[in-house]
Each structure stands twice: as C-alpha cells, then as structure tokens.
Write a sequence for this structure.
C-alpha cells in the first residue's frame, strides 16, 4: 500500500508540475500583413518576407513554444521569397503553412497567453499593421504586461507608432534597429521609398527612438536588445532575434 501511495503521490506531482510548466511556457504571437501590393499602378510587392518570418517561427517552435499568427483581417497571409532551407523545413514539419493560411483576427486573441510578439519584414506591415488600432493595442498590451517585442527589417515600423498607456511611444528612448533610410533610398523595391507610408528609420526617430543604422553599427546584422525590444536591420538575423527574445524571457523568469 505504501508503494502504491508513493506512486500515486509521485504521479500527482508530475501532473501538477507538468501543468505549471505548460502554463508558464505560454505562447509567442507572430504578426503578419494581409497587404499584397503598395497600391500603385505597377503593384509593387508588399507581402510578408518569408525569410524573416519562417526562421523565427522555427526557432520558437524548436525551443518548445507554441506560435500563433495574427493579421489585421485574419485569414490568409501572403509571402514573397521561395521556401528554402529552414523556411522549407518549418513549412513542411511545423505547421507554418496551416497557420498562415488561417491567421487569427485581433478579437480572437487572449493576450494573457502571450509572452512575446514578433513582426518580420516585407513592406506589408507598414501598410496595415503600423496604423491599425487593434494591432497596435496588442503590441502595447503584451509589452505593458512584461512581454518582449521583436522585429526584423521593416517589422520595426509596425510598432514605431505604438503608444503605451502612459502616453509615451513604445520606442521612446530605446535603441531600435529597423530597415535603414540609406538602404531604402538606394533600392527600387518601393521606388526609393516614395511608395511607402513612411521610412522606418525616420519614423522611429520621429517617435523618440534611438534608431540604429549602418553608420552606427559596426556589424549591420547585429541584434539590438533594449528594454524588452529586440530588433535587427536585415533578414539574415531574423532567427537570431527570436533566439534573443527567448534568452531574454528565460533570463527574466529567473529573477
């Protein structure tokens, strides 16, 4: 009987600890755009960049975190770039395609479930996330609750306009690396930036951020961490942003 009682107690403890761990793990929310083009006659591409969203998704999943996708309108999110390498892997084995075909609407979210929000690049987020009240509220709420916000490339523009309950901009006084003006103005992708609602670096600075650029950073692919905002200028470091977000969360959970 003692053996059975001991086993029963052990089983209860395992179940209890497992439940606590599951609760503590929480989820990561990835924001994606529903925009397809920039609205110009030539229909310049404004979809999400697969190489800035799929690799972070894989990093979160491989570290044991569930990932949900949300977009302004819900439903299908479109991507540019071909699926290669880790992007192909996460599409085939980690449910990426199913999730991005059926993204959630903002009203469907229980924000208490999420410890972090990640926004990748592609021009889309500048058109329908950066000034969408519901999406901006989500970012502010997760950050205000102690969560972590991450971005790659143009993704930083998605939260450049977020205002916290205090009335201050989320980015105010923080170092943030977003797609730099100098690169934008040298590329034809958005007609040297003239098709965009704003330039990411300029908008960050306008709202009080200490925007990082190629002149300030020795390594243009550096990941910048400042007060629970993790960001990088260009897509090769998107997966590293996800890893740094996890590291920051795990470090915070020890205190």
């Amino acid at each position: 009987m003692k053996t059975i009682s001991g086993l029963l107690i052990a089983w209860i403890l395992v179940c209890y600890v497992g439940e606590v761990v599951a609760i503590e793990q929480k989820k990561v929310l990835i924001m994606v755009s529903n925009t397809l083009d920039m609205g110009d006659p030539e229909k310049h591409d404004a979809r999400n960049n697969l190489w800035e969203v799929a690799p972070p998704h894989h990093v979160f999943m491989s570290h044991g975190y569930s990932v949900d996708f949300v977009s302004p309108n819900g439903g299908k999110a479109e991507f540019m770039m071909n699926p290669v390498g880790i992007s192909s892997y996460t599409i085939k084995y980690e449910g990426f395609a199913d999730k991005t075909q059926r993204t959630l609407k903002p009203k469907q979210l229980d924000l208490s479930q999420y410890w972090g929000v990640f926004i990748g690049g592609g021009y889309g987020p500048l058109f329908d996330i950066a000034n969408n009240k519901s999406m901006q509220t989500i970012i502010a709420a997760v950050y205000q609750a102690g969560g972590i916000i991450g971005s790659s490339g143009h993704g930083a523009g998605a939260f450049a306009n977020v205002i916290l309950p205090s009335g201050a901009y989320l980015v105010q006084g923080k170092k943030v690396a977003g797609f730099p003006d100098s690169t934008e103005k040298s590329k034809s992708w958005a007609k040297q930036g003239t098709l965009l609602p704003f330039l990411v670096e300029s908008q960050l600075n306008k709202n009080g951020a200490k925007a990082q650029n190629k002149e300030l950073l020795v390594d243009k692919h550096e990941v910048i961490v400042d007060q629970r905002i993790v960001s990088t200028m260009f897509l090769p470091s998107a997966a590293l942003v996800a890893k740094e977000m996890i590291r920051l969360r795990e470090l915070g959970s020890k205190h």
Q: What stands out?
A: The CA atoms of residues 11 and 63 lie 25 Å apart. The radius of gyration is 19 Å.
